Structure formats: C-alpha cells, structure tokens
Amino acid sequence: MTQLKTQMTTRPTRMRYIIALLLFITVVINYMDRANLSIAMPALSQEFDLTTGQQGLLLSAFGWTYAAMQLPGGWLVDRVRPRVLYASCLVLWSLATLFMGISGGFVALIILRLLVGGFEAPAYPINNKVATAWFPERERGRVIAFYTSGQFIGLALLTPVLSWLQTVLTWHWVFILTGVVGIIWAAIWWFVYREPRDKAGVNRAEIDLIASGGGLVDVESGTKKETKPKLRWSDVKVVLTRRKLWGIYLGQFCLTSTLWFFLTWFPTYLVDYRGMDYIESGFMASLPFIAALVGVLLSGWVSDLMVKKGLTLGTARKLPIIIGLAMTVFMLGANYTDSTALVIVFMSIAFFGNGFASITWSLVSALAPERLLGLTGGMFNFIGNLSSIATPIVIGFLVTDIDFAPAFVYMAAITVVGVLSYVFLVGKVERVEE
Question: CATH topology of 14-216 equal to that of 234-433?
Fold first, then answer.
C-alpha cells in the first residue's frame, strides 16, 4: 500500500492541460473581438454610407495599433506576470469593444478600433510565454495548435451566431455583447491563472517533467521587482539582425495576410459580391473557419508525431508551415468560377492550409534567445501583423464595386513569398545565441 501511494504521489499531475484550456478560451475571445467588425461591416457601412476605401481604413484600424504596440507589448510581457497583464488587457480591449456598439460615427469607430488593437497587442506574446513556461518541448506543438485553434473554433461557431444576432437586433449588439463576455473572462483569468511553481494542484513531478523537457518553469523569475531587466538597444539589435528570426518574421506576415483577409473582407465579399444575405453569409463564412480548425489541430498532431518519430525539430515544425502556405494559393480558384459552392470549397482549402501552417509560434519558442522570449515574440507579432494593416487597405483599393478578382491575385502572391521565406531564410532550427 505504501509503495502504491508513493507511485501515485510521484506521478506527474496534469494541471498544464487546464492552463492550455485557459489559453484556448482566451484566444476564442481575442479573435471574436477581432472579427466582430467584419460581421457588422455590411450593415454598418450601409448605415454610415462608407466607400470601399473607407471600409478598408476602418477594417485596418485595429492593425495600426496592434502592430505598433507589439514591441512595447513584448517589453511588458518580459516584465509583468501573465496573470496581471492578460487580465488588464482583456478588460481594456473589451471596454473599447463595448463602446463601439454605442458609438455614433465613423471617426469614433476608428478611434475605438485603434484602442482594441493596442490593448490586444500583448496577447500572443503572453500565450507564447505561458506555453513556454508550462509545457515541455515535445508537447508544445500540440498545445500551441490547440490554443491557436481557438481562433478558428470561435469564428466558426460564433460567426453565424453574431450574424443572427445582428439580424434580430442590430449591429450595435454585436459589439456590446462581445465586450461584456471579455470583461467577465478577465475576472476568471485573474482568479484561476498562476505560474507553474505557484499553482495549486501542481506536484513536483509535473514541474520536473516540464523542466526536463525544455519548459522554462522559472522564466517568470525575471519579472520580480529586484531583478527586472532593463531594455537595451543591444537586445533590439539581436532580434533584428538574425537571419533565422527574419525568416519567421516574413513568413508570419505572409501567413497572417490570409487570416486577415478572412477576418476583414470575406463576409463583405459574400454579401456584396456573391449576393448572400447576412444569415446565409454568416453560415457560409463559418465553413472555411471549420476547415482551418481541422488544419491547425492536424498540424500540431503531425508536427509532434514527427518529433516523436525522430525527425529533426526543423523538419517537424517547418514542413507543415510550408505545405499549409502552399495550399493557400487555391484561393485563386474563386476568380474562375461563378459557383458559390465552388468558391466556398476553394476558400475552405485555402484556409485549411492557413490553419495547417499556424504552428509558427512553436518556432518562436525554439529559436528565440531565452532571455528575450517576450521581445522576440513582440517583434515576430509586430512584423507578422503589419498584414493587419496592409491586407484590408490594399484589398480596399484593389477591388472595385463589381470586381474582387485582384484581391485573390494579391493574396496568392503574398503566399509564395511566405513559402520562400521558410525555405531559404529559416534554415536549421536551433535557439539563437545572443
């Protein structure tokens, strides 16, 4: 009996899976607040009589501050514990989202959308830091795939719901209710999340399992007041002068370009260029997100399986990304058919590829200098999410009232650049030395 009790107490607990669930739900809310504007845009643009150029500017407003705040956000992530920083950001961006529902004009909407983007900026660097602290390397691909899938599950399930809500009530309630949900979740995160060594229910065996597998269980020690590192220009130089890091930066820009197309222009494309109503477009828009969900879950499983089978970390992490990016070119098929069903098929294949490539944060964990995880993640997200500015604006000025084809040509060209970046710039996957 004593021996059995000893075995039970030395068996690793699984609290890290609860942390993965927290990250997943937070990502669902994060992307719900990114996509709510695209759902409301057809009705909103009609009410305010917006041109396609104005729509592009409004859809891009999130990206201006989201990108600009990546480096300050990464700096904060290296200094403020995730429990405090994530809860604060959730409250602030949710309040800005809520006020979008009661704003009375185009300028007010842009200002509030800028605030949403700025306050969401630290989100993914926080996710990456939490995953790096809580999970060994051999589990990290699946975990990153799992919480990243939250963006697609949330959008797949919530896009029809929010479209229905807009039809039954008005577009204003799309923002009000999503804002309220975010504020409630901020309180839950604050009360539940802790670092590995501080979390109740975690035994020493789980801590040892994480640490021996490459998890940085003590990464938060640098955030204590007496040991806070100062931002140095030499640190910025490190994350800006390494070829490997530039490979993932450029690749992320190309990957997120496709994501931002679906987050901004896709519902408008279905309503204004394919003649669907709001409820029908909400259902159709959800299908590519479901495909992307399947892609991202399959990607994490395949990537970790390749690691388990003895393939190099570089092959296991890069191959799904390259294959997924290449599949995005299927989007061009929409230019050669009048069938709405075929358009959805092409879009679903393209977005499946985007999901299959969405384990890019695993390369940040594997390549970033250990002391500069937050700063590297911030730079990665900054350059990657410049697409959140470029994609809505470029498409807004490329398309006309009757022709959307140039948008798909642009997206295919960007994807090719992403493939070349991972093939020729990233090289062997190993942690960058300072």
Answer: yes
234-433: what CATH class?
Answer: mainly alpha
Q: How many CB atoms neighbour CB 309 within 10 A?
A: 8
Q: What is the CATH number of domain 14-216?
A: 1.20.1250.20
> How confident is the prediction along the chain (434 residues), in pLDDT tens digits per residue?
444 344 445 787 777 888 889 999 999 898 888 878 888 887 888 888 887 778 878 888 888 898 788 778 877 887 888 888 999 999 999 999 999 888 778 888 889 999 999 999 888 888 888 888 878 777 777 787 788 778 777 777 777 777 787 778 888 888 888 899 999 999 999 998 887 776 777 778 767 777 766 666 666 654 444 445 556 777 777 778 788 889 889 999 999 898 888 878 887 788 777 776 655 666 676 788 888 888 877 887 888 788 778 777 778 878 888 999 999 899 888 888 888 888 888 989 998 998 888 878 777 877 777 777 777 877 887 888 888 888 888 888 888 777 888 889 999 999 999 989 888 888 777 677 76
The Cα 132–Cα 218 span in angstroms is: 10
* Domain spans in the chain, listed from the N-terminal domain onward: 14-216, 234-433
CA distances from 291 to 151, 242, 414 (A): 12, 34, 21
Rounded Cα–Cα distance for residues 272 and 160 (Å): 17
Neighbours of 105 (CB within 10 A): 9
Token code pair at residue 318: 């890069």
